[in-house]
Design brief:
The chain has 3 helices and 10 strands; from the N terminus they run αββαβββββαβββ. It is elongated. It is an alpha+beta fold.
Length: 166
């Protein structure tokens, strides 16, 4: 009787550990569901929108200009932020706010990306904390899941004019 109970308990623990490892690998390397909060990505992503984030792009260095990414916050490593990639390493980016009369430019250093929210007037982004190390990128947002009337791939940036070509 005791042997039977112990056998079932250890079997259950073994399966729990196995499935836990599989779930961890799936969420770490494949992707997951993310609930976005805050106004910085409006109108593309609204507060409380639910999106799917895939994580393979960051591992294979497939992040491109215009992608929306989930990043570990440079200001608070315990939180994650959602921003659009405006520049990759070596790109020339506009570092000033849209309302600034004189525009300033800079180059993105090696191993970094330049991130901005779509809501430029209400976003804390690379214009505040500078270029972000590529290693802080956690995933790339593929499509919106919720609300259902907005289900599908995300639209292009409303700030396309901020993408500079040399």
């Amino acid at each position: 009787m005791l042997r039977n109970v112990l056998g079932k308990t250890f079997r259950f623990l073994g399966y729990t550990v196995q499935y836990g490892c599989i779930a961890h690998c799936a969420f770490e390397y494949l992707g997951g569901i993310v609930v976005c909060s805050g106004p910085s990505m409006e109108p593309t992503i609204q507060n409380s929108d639910i999106v799917f984030s895939e994580n393979l792009s960051r591992h294979f260095y497939c992040i491109r200009k215009g992608d929306i990414v989930i990043v570990k916050s440079p200001n608070d490593p315990k939180s994650k932020i959602c921003k659009r990639v405006i520049g990759l390493e070596g790109d020339k980016v506009c570092t000033s706010n849209p309302s600034d009369f004189l525009k300033s430019h800079s180059y993105v250093p090696k191993g970094h990306v330049w991130l901005e929210g779509d809501n430029l007037r209400n976003s804390t982004d690379s214009r505040c904390y500078g270029p972000v190390p590529y290693g802080l990128i956690r995933g790339r947002i593929c499509f919106k899941i919720w609300p259902l009337n907005d289900f599908g791939f995300l639209r292009a940036s409303p700030n396309g004019h901020r993408f500079l070509d040399d």
